[in-house]
Each structure stands twice: as structure tokens, then as C-alpha cells.
Amino acid sequence: MAPSSKAEKKAAVDAAAWMFNVVTSVGIIIVNKALMATYGFSFATTLTGLHFATTTLMTVVLRWMGYIQPSHLPLPELLKFVLFANFSIVGMNVSLMWNSVGFYQIAKLSMIPVSCLLEVVFDKIRYSRDTKLGIVVVLLGVAVCTVTDVSVNAKGFIAAFIAVWSTSLQQYYVHYLQRNYSLSSFNLLGHTAPVQAASLLMLGPFLDYWLTNKRIDAFDFNIPSVVFIILSCTIAVGTNLSQFICIGRFTAVSFQVLGHMKTILVLILGFLFFGREGLNLHVVLGMIIAIFGMVLYGNASSKPGGKERRSHSISRSSQQKHGLSESSELDDKV
């Protein structure tokens, strides 16, 4: 196959994977908002446990059908991943409870520089000036859209700190495990989803009671609320799978940058479904800035030297000195 055809095919698959993630992520936000606001189901951690239980069921069916092949993931690596992932979920819930919405959004924005730091330290990634500028513009645009009142206290800051670092580590680890152990997205979910489901379903009711002072066994599970819970769990299967696919293809930083497009879409859908009060001049301005930053980041990071491993650059220079071919190095960019 010609190089241009390979590039076109990769671009098409990347776009499909990203759209899959956007549709499922925005869909689950809207469904969960309706579930919590309309039916009063405020048990977020337990609901996440149900999401992973449904995802586990999906992986069992796919393994039985032969779509998931046997693979190996060392137990210490699995436990580290689940630890990061669960701290991420719990940290985000607690951070939202203890902090203002403005500081919560700032904490979410800080995941991009933290993810960049992890790639620089562990993967020796080097970013060009234009790539860094694109990231800064995205951060600025989303901040203009979402950050309003900003207040913070000591325990809120600690919760946000744990949430940011655990989420960034979890997303980095998805890419790390897929790369180092040659795991597909289905394989990795098959290893991690059962452990996350079991741990979150055991922890969730107690944590949710602590956060909301409501007991899940006292909730009125009527037919409409159960339908929404089932719908949320069904969409979550796609969300979990698409997250692993996207991080495996784009790396954690690109996933975070592109992920803010979902924030923009949620704001737009909120305007369409819930009224005009959520959309004003500074929100529109922030959307324009953020979208411009995403285009700038995508263009800059795709250029030679926009985002690459330092070790590969050094290796290429060494090969040039010894008269060796450079062609194989062109495939090593991330």
C-alpha cells in the first residue's frame, strides 16, 4: 500500500475513533445529568462501578465470541492501573464537592501540563514551540468558557491535586500498558474492568453516602430511573472502550487537548436543550479561542519536530554520522 494511502487510512480511523469517543462521552454526560437532576440518583461512584460491571460483561461476551484473544498483564501493573483509575474517580467526585466550579475547572485544565510533564519525564517527548502555543491557546479558550468563581480551601486543594495527578497517571498508563504489553483496547479492558467494577461497587455506596448523606438502598428504583441507569451503563461501555482506543492512538496529551472539544459540545448542547442562559459573549469567545487552539495544536504536532521522542532524534543524528538510513526513524514519531 502506498504511503499516502496508509496515511489516509490512519487519518480516517483516527477520526472515527475520536468521533466515537465524542459521541459516547457527550451522550453519557447528558444521560447522567438527566438521571441525577430529574430522578435524584446522586450516587456517582456506585454508578461508575455499574458502568465497569457492564463493560466487564461486554468483554466476557467478546472473549466467548473470539474477538478478544488471550493476553498477559502482570498483576502489579494491573493493580497500579486500578489504583490510579479509582483515585481519579473518587478524587474528581470529592474535588467537585469541596471546591467551587471555577477551581474544579482549573484543576481539570491543569491535567494537560501534568500529562505533558509525564510524557517529557517518562517518554522523553520533546514539544515544539508551536505545539506548546497550541496547548496554551486551548487552555485559555476553555478557561474563558468555563471558569467563573474561583475559591479554594486546603482540603479542596488536596482533593484536586490527587484527582489531577491520578487521572493524568491513569491516562498515561493506558498508553504505556498497550505499548509495552502489546494489548489491544479490548484486551486491556478485559484485564482492568472486572477489578475496577468489583472495587468501585464495594467502595461506592459508602463513599456516596459520605458525599451526599443518602443511602443507595433507600433510593426509589422506579421504571424510568432504571431505564436511565441501564442507558447510562450501555453508553458507558462505548465511553470506556473509546477512551482506551483514543489514548492508545493519540497519547494522553493529545487526548486531553482534543477532549476539551467535548466541553465545547456540552456547552452548545446545554444551550440547545436547557435554554440561552448558559451561553453569553464570553462563552462564545472562549469557544472560538479553544477551537482555534485545537486546530493550531493539531497542525503543529503533526509537523516534523512538532512532538517527538528525544532519543529518536539523537539516534537519527548518530545514524547520519555513520551513513545509515534515516527512513525507519520517520515512523517513530508520536
Automatic annotation (TrEMBL):
Q: Which residues cross the membrane?
A: 12-31, 43-66, 78-96, 133-150, 156-174, 186-206, 226-245, 257-275, 281-300
Q: Which InterPro entries match?
A: Sugar_P_trans_dom, TPT_transporter
Q: Which UniProt keywords apply?
A: Membrane, Transmembrane, Transmembrane helix
Task: Give the record's membrane topology.
Answer: Multi-pass membrane protein
Record GO cellular component, one term: membrane
Residues in coiled coil:
none
Q: Region (Disordered): which ranges?
A: 303-334
Q: Where in the cell is it found?
A: Membrane
Sugar phosphate transporter domain location: 23-297
State what protein this is by name.
Nucleotide-sugar transporter family protein
